[in-house]
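hey all, quick one before standup. I had two proteins in the batch that finished overnight and I want to keep them in one place so we stop losing track of which output belongs to which input. First protein below, input sequence then structure tokens straight from the run.
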Amino acid sequence: MIRLIPLLTLLTVSPLAAQGKKTTSAKPFWPDEGPRTWTARITRPAITANDMRVRLYQFADDSMMGREAATLGGWKGTEYVAREYQRLGLVPGGDNGTYFQEIQYGQLRYDSTRVQLAVAGAPLMLGSQWMPLLPSTPNMVAGRFAGQNVTVVYGGRWLDSTVTLDPAVVRGKVVVFSPAAAAAPRPAGVAAPRDTRASIAGAAGVFVIVDQLTRTALVPRNGLMPTVAGSTGGAAITREVAASLFDRPLDQLSAGALGKSVSGSWTYEYTRPEYPARNVIGILPGSDPVLKHQYVLIGAHNDHIGMVRGTLKPEHDSLRAFNKVLKPQGANDRV
């Protein structure tokens, strides 16, 4: 997710939770390493290490709890940045005249009690006969479907780009795909193949036949709600369910063959957290009459990765990874 925090805000001063702490002496790993704590003080016009410490020691203090998105620590961090934007005289660039742009980052899930699918009026068993697909931006599969007596049409193999789907046949229907053909291992850095044919052709839904269903889509997870172009919902179905949709075996069907009707509904739900994740956007207007309508974007993360759950110490995950993995392997060695 994009987080907008102009770097210039790190060069000014404002009190935060770390104020008043006394600098403690500790044996540094490197001779030029800074102290473990830093007392807030007035900054100077020049950009110096000490001026940066005034800002960063407060923003990264344990009281900020790692600033994980959608937590109190993350909320405190964005409030802090917004106050600094206001103090600097930046123009609010967020929602409704504020500095904040709320992001749909929170708990995502399908509610198993509210999803349903039936073939010709006969309900299917969730988990053993079908599962809704997670939203997929690359495949243009949305996290929602609602339809009554929608005709199904066979679309051939999933990911088979040699088969063109006729919008006149597909539009408003549910396209059923056989499993994708076996593929060679994908080289590192190569994007996964995608299939947007049904969505582009205007299908109401996409059903992909799978050999084994998983319940991953029903497991709540924290994340960013995917943005999907279009409204084509998706589901995974077993071979047995797919066979019941058509009057002939699947291996005797050609793309465009019509089948029975299905009815169903499901929605990938977002639960707004108590402390929503937010971008913080401030604008420094330009003075040039020609260029003032163009924008230069300067951004940085305002959140971090939070804290280890269930520990007595406020140990940030990044510190744990460093202390437990990198440091023993010589991460502090000067090369």
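OK second protein, same deal, sequence then tokens:
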Amino acid sequence: MPSFCTIAVSCFAALLTIGELLAADAPHPAAPNPVAPLGGALVADRPRVIVSSDVGGDDPDDMQSFAHLLVYADVLDVEGLIASPPGKGRAKDIHASLDAYARDYPNLKSYATSYPTPQRLREVTKQGAAEPWGKNGGQPTDGSKWIIEQAKRDDPRPLYVCVFGAITDVAQALKDDPSIANKLRVYFIASWNQQQDKEAFAYIDKNYPDLWMIHSNTTFRGMYVGGNQTGDLSNVAFPEQHVRGHGALGDYFWAAKRDIKMGDTPSILYLLRGDPNDPTQESWGGRYVPRPGRPHWWVDDPDPAAAAPKGFAGAKSVSKWREHYLRDWQARMDRCQAPKKD
């Protein structure tokens, strides 16, 4: 007959085995998401913003970025929308996005009375340069004049210029009134856009070494490369489930392109979450490193650890926040569908 000790040991071993099995079958907790960056328009002061875009041109991602921008217009002081292709794309294409916004505006304003009226946004929509600057400098446009006018307004806040397209009108504004340089903060989605007007960028680079500039050449690609793309967070599934059919802006987005690219959106995400005064800190729109010799110019982080798949430098600093900014945008698109319930 087995001794009492033998029986006790056997029972204890059995309990351990059962516990291990239960632990194996139990759901494992998901890896914790990174803590959201501190600061930004969603939790702090409203930034002043001008958007210069080639919306309506050959790449439909600007239309996607406009749909995103407009559902966040309640936390931004949108002071200008400039059509600055060059080539295709005109102010009428910005007005097309505002047509969609106007249809959703009754629902949107039930969530926040700070959403600007469609008429107000139409009033600040301007036509910029339709052709590249040229080696000898271009001519003033309604867009470049508007940048100067807003920069010279009596407002202590800096003026952020988010450049979705060519940087032509920014260069022209600086050329015509250099005194505005210390008021501007430029977030330039460079890459292909820079190639559309090399002369305009070269003029700024040569003549304004102290200009506050985020030069995003590859970091912005974290918007659609890398990050959590499982389930409904994928580039295809997210628009299908959370954008299509969500008001007129959702339909506007879907008609332009049915998967996420939105390569210009990080310039807006930068203002929404994170400290916009310090590009070296974490933000939804990326983290950048100083350009040597330039006190207020930041570029993509060359550290391989910061690269997204396909080797895009710095892009992981955007894609790491993918679940955060997509879920937030999901809630914003829901606003387009129905007014807020009391």
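Flagging for whoever picks this up: DSSP finds 13 helices and eight strands in the chain. Residues 1-32 have pLDDT under 50 and may be disordered.
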